[in-house]
């Protein structure tokens, strides 16, 4: 039984330590089939300036207009969007319900866009030529407006024989922007429309390094694939071939995505990604990204842009596995971890919204609730351990008698277990029952935006580590107390005594930089288990007293 206990503890440690190792490393590049991701040798920018205008009218091949650009502001209940008249680009996406956590920006509404935003900018490829529509000046009657009903902003620009019309529809209760447009004079064979998605998202988090590791792009065809910016070769341009239902650029908590699965929308044909490393850096956290849409001869196109938070329920409503842009779990383990993580996240949010409790109190109640649910299983397991201890003398006799005959030894051992109704593993596996919840909570705190910036007592942010390291120490002490209580009435054992001291210290060190909310849950869960351990230890001591033939001392 001692060996089984040690193996169970070792397995628990391995499971818990895995996230710590992985979270300190940047996300590994995601492999993809050879026909879907290719690396292109260094070439000019993904959308080069217009060369010899063989396929486009000469009147539109000149330099960009010198007219200054204006910004049209659209205010909804969820966000303030800014549309530049130069190219119709989205240059502001300020989210009203989320505050920036980055140093120097703390307390301001999160603005997803970076300076030089290419988001929703357009370039037209016809033959070997590229027309930079993102440099055109568009006219619009809109200036600044607020709306509580769906509203459409129309923009138009003409050069020579080519006219571009854009219509952006904003909804008061949605982060999606409907885009419908047309380009006249494309030619009988149509062309290729490039939609800007770069250079990435603003770094809005207190932990800048952790957020930078999450920066990258995601594509969805048969499955979703994520590739971090910092894994790209900064000397090359990555060409990612589709078709895709949607493509997205994400940070830890926010995302912008081109959704191309609505009726009448052409799928995204592919992506061109050129890393943009800052001076002196080997890795890139920004990139010039262009998604390609097939443009028919008629010149009509449509898609939707999502620019907002990765709220799981909102992403799930979009459909087409858009919620997988924010994955729970590691590849290979996601199938097991994700259902538990999604269920835990739903319960935490439900308790917060319906019981009107702070998330810190929600975690306290959740930790107690988990232990109450597991109480019967733990009770059965602990009594199984007591039964195993009761038959130890007979078991030892069988082991000594048949030590030279392994087959007979196994047969007699199982016969003994059956006679006494003992499951040799019954006392070990319940120790691992809380681990799926603990792992799920690890990913919930890593990915769930609802917990971002939530404070509790001295903890400024439950999704970040405790800056004072108090809660990890409480967690370690609670683990020590739980283990010590569980050893009451058990004969002294050097191995178990060693584990009682080593495991809490090791887990405390491991959890120092984990989310403080995760430490809070684990500490509460340990403390809530102590009464059950005390009751079982009382039963154990009574049984020991009966076996020894002496009354139990009070």
Describe the structure.
- With 554 residues, this protein is α+β, with helices and mostly antiparallel strands.
- 35% of the residues lie in helices and 23% in strands.
- It contains eleven helices and 20 strands.
- An eight-stranded antiparallel sheet has the order 9-10-11-20-17-16-13-14, with no helix packed on it.
- Strand 2 and strand 3 form a beta hairpin.
- The longest helix has 33 residues, at 516-548.
- It starts with a helix and ends in a 6-residue tail after the last helix.
Per-chain topology:
Blueprint lengths: L1 H22 L13 E4 L30 E5 L3 E6 L5 E10 L9 E3 L10 E5 L2 E3 L12 E3 L4 E9 L2 E9 L5 E8 L7 E6 L11 H7 L1 E5 L3 E5 L8 E8 L1 E5 L3 E6 L8 E8 L11 E9 L4 E10 L2 H7 L15 H22 L3 H32 L1 H10 L4 H15 L14 H13 L22 H17 L7 H18 L4 H33 L6
Parallel strand pairs: 2-8
Antiparallel strand pairs: 1-15, 2-3, 3-4, 4-5, 6-7, 6-12, 9-10, 10-11, 11-20, 12-19, 13-14, 13-16, 15-18, 16-17, 17-20, 18-19
Helix pairs in contact: 1-8, 1-10, 4-5, 4-8, 5-11, 6-7, 8-11, 9-10, 9-11
Lateral strand order in the biggest sheet: 9-10-11-20-17-16-13-14
What's the number of helices?
11
* Count of β-strands: 20
Proportion of beta-strand residues = 15-25%
Number of domains: 2
Tell me the structural class. Answer: alpha+beta
- What's the CATH architecture name of the largest domain? Distorted Sandwich
Sheet having the most strands: 8 strands, antiparallel
Q: Please state the CA-atom Rg, rounded to the nearest Å.
A: 30 Å
CATH top level assignment of the largest domain: Mainly Beta
State the helical fraction.
25-40%
